[in-house]
Every structure is written in structure tokens, then in C-alpha cells.
Specification:
- The protein contains 2 helices and 2 strands.
- It has a two-stranded antiparallel sheet.
- The longest helix has 17 residues, at about 60-75.
- It is about 35% helix and about 10% strand.
- The protein has about 80 residues and is of the alpha+beta class.
- Mean pLDDT is about 80; it is low at about 1-10.
């Protein structure tokens, strides 16, 4: 169904043009090919996910964003010079 183009990018899903499958837990890290681990997503969004987050799982990304949010809220404001 898919042909590999590079390490993480796959050709589009033939049944749903412009979309492909994203593993919430990457296969390289033990993720399965089942409905609980797969998300049908637009190709551009899938490519952006991997450019930004690499092979992080959904849970790891959520934890990272929460840490960044906490850091931002506790960061003192700088006065403009």
C-alpha cells in the first residue's frame, strides 16, 4: 500500500488521496499497525510533525509542550531597551 520515499515520509494513501498514515507510537519504537496506533493525516501535516517532533510519541510531544508552557508562564518579562 505504501512505498518508502525516505526515513519517515511515505507516499499518499491510495484510498484517500493527499493523506497517509501516522503511527502515534513509531514502529521503530515498537508501535503496532493497529487502529489504536494509526492516524490518517494530511501529507503536509504528517511531514511537519516529523520535521518538528521527529520520532517522538504523541504522549512525549504533549509532555514537551506542557513543559514549554510551564517555562513560558514562569519566565520573567524583559523590559524593552
Amino acid at each position: 500500500m505504501f512505498r518508502k520515499r525516505n526515513r519517515w515520509q511515505k507516499t499518499q494513501n491510495r484510498r484517500r488521496p493527499g493523506r497517509n498514515l501516522h503511527h502515534l507510537l513509531p514502529r521503530a519504537r515498537g508501535g503496532k499497525n493497529n487502529d489504536r496506533n494509526l492516524l490518517l493525516i494530511d501529507i503536509e501535516k504528517h511531514e511537519a510533525w516529523h520535521r518538528i517532533f521527529g520520532l517522538r510519541s504523541l504522549g512525549e510531544v504533549i509532555a514537551l509542550l506542557q513543559r514549554l508552557d510551564r517555562m513560558k508562564r514562569h519566565q520573567p518579562l524583559r523590559k524593552a531597551a
